[in-house]
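Lay summary

Proteins are chains of building blocks that fold into shapes. Our project writes down both the chain and a compact code for its shape. Here are two examples, one after the other.
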Amino acid sequence: MIYGDWNDYARERSLYPAALVKALDFLQAADWTAMANGRYDIDGDDLYVNVVSGETAPIAKRKAERHFRYADVQYMISGEETMGVARYTERLRVTDDWTDRDALLFEEVENETLLRVQAGQFAVFMPHDVHRPGCAIGGDPQPVRKAIVKIATKLLLQSGECDGAPALEKERETK
């Protein structure tokens, strides 16, 4: 998991995989006042962004999620929310199996850490990061607008070979 903002991005940029740099460069350059909600392809189905508007909800009303084929970059355009994050463990009980949409959902997550994400900040969640976006700060719902970039795991592998992707895919199939 990575938690960042544009103040530190230039200094940290060289540490990130090329696909993540491409995603973050897109987010940084975008004119959010001119972009409507919807999907925007950066590199087809391997790298794309969903721009969404909504309202946060109390944490008890939000389910945590985990993906297999994609990493998520959650970028806050406006508003602020709490996002929960924890490492995946076999002890977590799946409440909704959305493998057709690349997601498993969980209600209860042990050792969950809460992040406050404000406009201009981003959080990157890798496939083993169980994350719970869209949670209200202090329980009071508020409007938010954000961009969610989906990065295919195969793009994050530095060697160019999909050494990790088959293992994730096999794990997904057993859930």
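And here is the second example, written the same way.
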Amino acid sequence: MQKSDTKRHLVDAVKELLHSGEDFTVKDISQRAYTNVAAVNYYFGDKNTLVNIALQELIDVYREKIIETLRQDMPSTNEYIESFLTLVSQMYLDNKGVIRYIVRTDTGNKPELIESFLFDDELTRLVYEKMELMTGEKRPEVQFCNYMIALSSFILPLLFECQNDDDKSSGFGLIALQSEDMRRVFVTQLMKLFT
């Protein structure tokens, strides 16, 4: 196997293991990638570096989907928020294991992962533009605070879901937002915070 193929197989193996939400070892990674255990350290130095590369690739996909949603023209702010909510809740459902792993495991890279949603120029620029349309507020410090409030409204339900060890919803998390009626209620209540 070529060096680049081996590295790609290792990263892809970690992505698969991350989706399980369970802790895993270097041996698990190497078995999944059909390589030997030494390949992880040889190509990446250690498990955390490899895991962080896989996590960053997954997060980059999430960010791009969010950016794509924010670029779309929609007639109302409520539709933006509802489509954002739908996207975030679906991304959670598709990637429960990954998110649980991030929340429950010390990868040594959480600040960088979080910053990718806070300080990414294109993402935050688009969010601030939508916030300005919604609130009429142009001051960056107020836009930042509004973004933190909106982001927090997604984080708490996410944490509720991550605390469940099984696939059952607590009834308070993002899974509840799969219901169109619940999303409308959530969007309506969220909009009240900004108007």
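What can we say about the second shape? The radius of gyration is 19 Å.
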